[in-house]
Design a protein that fits this description.
By secondary structure, the chain is an alpha+beta fold. The chain has helices at about 1-45, 50-60, 65-70, 85-100, 105-110, 120-135, 135-145, 150-160, 170-180, 180-190, 205-215, 365-370, and strands at about 75, 80, 220-225, 235-240, 260-265, 270-275, 290-295, 300-310, 310-320, 325-340, 350-355. α1 packs antiparallel against α2 (about 50-60) and α2 packs across α4 (about 85-100). This is Lipoprotein.
C-alpha cells in the first residue's frame, strides 16, 4: 500500500513539475515577444521603413488575450502589465504602421474578437480601430468576409461599447452598407441607437415604445391613426427620426424607422418595423425627403422626394395589408420626375407592380433595391 502511495505522490509531483515548467515556458515566451516588440518599436522610431514596420506589426499581439497580457491592467494584483504605461504609444504606432501597410489590417480585427472595452489600453485601441475603419471602409468590407457572423458580432460589439454606449450610427457604417450589406446588418445591431427591442412583438405597449425611442435619441415626426386591417380597431402608423444636426459633409442617411402598430384590442399592439425605406438626410439637394404617409382602406403609401442632378424625384411606395395572409406586402412602387430647370417638361412616370418584383414583406423592403427596378 505504501508503495502505491509513494508512486502516486511521485506522479503528482511529476505532473505538478511539468505544469510549472510549461507555465515558465509560456512566461519566457511572452517576455521574449515583449522584448522583441520593444526592440521593433525603437527601430520604427528611428527609421520607419516598410521592413521595420512589418516586423513591428508581426510582433504586435495576435489576439485580445495577448493584448491584455502586454498592455492591460491586473485588477487583482493592482498593477499594469509590462507595457501598460506605454500602451498609448505602442498602439498608436501599430495603427500608423497599418496605415502604411493596409494589407495587414486584418490583424486589428483579429484582436477585436472577444475583446472587452476597458479604460486605458482597450480604449486607445478601440478609438484607433474605429478611425481606421472610417478611413478604409472598402478594405474593411473585404476583410470582414474572412470572419463568421459570430466573429463579426464580437468585433462590432467591442467597437460599439465604451464608457458610454454610442447613441448615433457612425457615418462610416453607411459606406460599409454599400459594399457589404450583410456586415452592415450585423454591425448596426450593436449600436445603442439600434438597440431597440424586437418590435415585431405581438404585445407591444405604445407608451413603452415611445419612451424607448426617446431614450435612444429618436423623435416622432409623423403619426397616423387608421384601421388598416379592417377589424374595427384603431391602428397607428408612426415615423421617427434620429436626433442629429446634419451638415452637407454628412452622407445619405437612412435612419427614420416606420412602425405599423396593429391594435390587439387590449391596449397592446402587434408591431412591424422597417428602417430601410425613409431617408433621414440627403446632402447637396433641395429635395424635401420624407413628405407623408397616405392611408386608404387597407393600403398605405409612403411619399418622399429625392434629388438627382437637376431632377426632383417623387417616390410613392405602396403597401397592402393582406387580410388572408395577415401580413403587409409591397403592392406598388412609382417615381415621378420634375426638371428644376424646366418644370413643365414632360417626363414619363415609372410605375412598378407586383408583376415586376417578387413578394416583398413590409419589414424587408429596401429603398436601395427599389431604385434598381426598371422595365
Amino acid at each position: 500500500m505504501k508503495i502505491y502511495i509513494i508512486a502516486f505522490f511521485l506522479l503528482f509531483i511529476g505532473c505538478d513539475s511539468s505544469g510549472q515548467k510549461k507555465m515558465v515556458q509560456i512566461d519566457n515566451r511572452s517576455k521574449l515577444q515583449i522584448d522583441s516588440l520593444k526592440d521593433d518599436y525603437q527601430r520604427v522610431n528611428k527609421s520607419d521603413t516598410k521592413e521595420n514596420e512589418k516586423k513591428y506589426i508581426a510582433n504586435f499581439p495576435n489576439d485580445f488575450s495577448q493584448f491584455q497580457e502586454t498592455f492591460g491592467y491586473d485588477d487583482k494584483l493592482g498593477k499594469g502589465k509590462p507595457l501598460y504605461n506605454e500602451s498609448y504609444d505602442y498602439i498608436k504606432m501599430f495603427f500608423q504602421c497599418l496605415k502604411n501597410n493596409p494589407k495587414f489590417i486584418k490583424k486589428a480585427l483579429d484582436i477585436s474578437i472577444n475583446a472587452k472595452w476597458d479604460v486605458d489600453a482597450e480604449n486607445f485601441f478601440q478609438m484607433e480601430l474605429e478611425t481606421m475603419i472610417s478611413k478604409n471602409p472598402s478594405l474593411i468590407c473585404e476583410q470582414l468576409n474572412n470572419y463568421s457572423d459570430e466573429q463579426q458580432k464580437s468585433i462590432w460589439h467591442f467597437i460599439a461599447n465604451g464608457v458610454k454606449k454610442k447613441t448615433e450610427i457612425p457615418q462610416y457604417l453607411f459606406k460599409i452598407k454599400n459594399c457589404n450589406p450583410k456586415a452592415y446588418s450585423i454591425a448596426i445591431a450593436n449600436f445603442s441607437s439600434q438597440r431597440l427591442r424586437d418590435y415585431d412583438s405581438q404585445n407591444l405597449n405604445l407608451d413603452s415604445l415611445l419612451k424607448e425611442l426617446a431614450d435612444n435619441s429618436y423623435k416622432l415626426i409623423f403619426e397616423k391613426k387608421c384601421d388598416l386591417n379592417g377589424d374595427g380597431l384603431q391602428d397607428i402608423i408612426l415615423v421617427v427620426s434620429i436626433k442629429k444636426e446634419f451638415t452637407q459633409n454628412d452622407i445619405i442617411t437612412l435612419d427614420s424607422p416606420i412602425y405599423v402598430l396593429l391594435n390587439n384590442g387590449d391596449k397592446t399592439y402587434k408591431s412591424l418595423r422597417n428602417r430601410d425605406l425613409i431617408y433621414t438626410f440627403m446632402p447637396n439637394t433641395p429635395a424635401e425627403g420624407f413628405k407623408d404617409v397616405v392611408v386608404k382602406n387597407n393600403y398605405f403609401t409612403i411619399e418622399q422626394q429625392e434629388g438627382a442632378g437637376w431632377l426632383f424625384i417623387d417616390t410613392y411606395t405602396t403597401f397592402k395589408y393582406d387580410i388572408t395572409k395577415k401580413e403587409i406586402i409591397l403592392s406598388k412602387y412609382g417615381r415621378s420626375f420634375t426638371d428644376r430647370r424646366d418644370p413643365d417638361k414632360s417626363i414619363r412616370d415609372e410605375i412598378y407592380t407586383s408583376k415586376d418584383f417578387k413578394t416583398i414583406n413590409f419589414e424587408n423592403a429596401n429603398s436601395d433595391d427599389l431604385k434598381k427596378l426598371n422595365h
